[in-house]
């Protein structure tokens, strides 16, 4: 399949995922529906028009190209057993995390003060779990893709995510490399969906940058945390307005002389 055909196939997949019909795309582009159908069927579409389609879909060309290459597969997870073992042992989890970040075993041993027998035992456990292959000289080859994701309802998130998020936010975020932003706005469903896609794209770019920097020695890299979060939420401060209004509304009214007025019903 030619590259242009792959791009168009990926574009059609995006349209289907987002519930867009050819008529919807035609309206957004100011074209007729038959013209859009022709463009997406015969492959005769220039780069400028393809970029315009990406713009109306809020889809950058890089992401479309990744889809066309088949780089964006279904989210890959570790097995439940693998996650359970990592959640059970923080030391095993730490060694596995460092290996995924491109650390050499000798650097892990020196950097964290592990004895050779202890590190070998941890690497052997990773080998038995089919997470890494233990080679002679305590060298290791990962047996899982580096871009895997933890299961949303899995044991690793259950044990580590909450504590890690709280620890992450304890910092004052005053350094030049730090950024903390919290904003509260009201969004419609369509805008919220766009925002979520952008956050997911940022997470993918974060992982890709880390993948590129694996070629650097560990001494030239630093651990960086990226916390992305969005959810329907009303800040508790807002609720105080409703509560105070309710208190005032329910407070007894008083007549002259400070006496409570009497209401008589018949």
Automatic annotation (TrEMBL):
Domain spans labelled HTH cro/C1-type: 11-64
Protein name: Helix-turn-helix family protein
Coiled-coil regions listed: none
GO molecular function: DNA binding
Entry-linked InterPro entries: Cro/C1-type_HTH, Lambda_DNA-bd_dom_sf
PROSITE patterns cross-referenced by the UniProt entry: HTH_CROC1 (PS50943)
């Amino acid at each position: 399949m030619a590259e242009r055909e792959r791009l168009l196939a990926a574009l059609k997949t995006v349209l289907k995922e987002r519930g867009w019909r050819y008529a919807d795309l035609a309206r957004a582009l100011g074209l007729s529906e038959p013209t859009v159908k022709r463009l997406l069927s015969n492959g005769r579409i220039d780069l400028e028009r393809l970029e315009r389609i990406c713009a109306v879909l809020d889809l950058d060309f890089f992401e479309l190209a990744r889809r066309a290459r088949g780089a964006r597969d279904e989210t890959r997870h570790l097995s439940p057993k693998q996650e359970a073992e990592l959640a059970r042992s923080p030391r095993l989890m730490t060694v596995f995390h460092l290996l995924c970040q491109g650390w050499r075993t000798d650097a892990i041993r020196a950097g964290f003060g592990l004895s050779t027998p202890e590190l070998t035992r941890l690497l052997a456990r990773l080998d038995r779990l089919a997470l890494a292959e233990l080679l002679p000289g305590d060298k290791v080859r990962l047996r899982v893709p580096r871009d895997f994701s933890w299961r949303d309802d899995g044991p690793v998130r259950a044990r580590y995510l909450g504590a890690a998020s709280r620890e992450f936010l304890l910092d004052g975020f005053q350094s030049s490399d730090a950024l903390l932003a919290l904003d509260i706005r009201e969004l419609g469903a369509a805008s919220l969906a766009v925002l979520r896609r952008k956050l997911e794209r940022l997470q993918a770019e974060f992982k890709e940058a880390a993948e590129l920097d694996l070629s650097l020695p560990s001494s030239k890299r630093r651990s960086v945390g990226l916390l992305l979060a969005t959810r329907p939420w009303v800040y508790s401060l807002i609720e105080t307005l409703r509560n105070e209004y309710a208190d005032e509304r329910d407070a007894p009214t008083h007549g002259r002389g400070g006496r409570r007025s009497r209401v008589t019903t018949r």
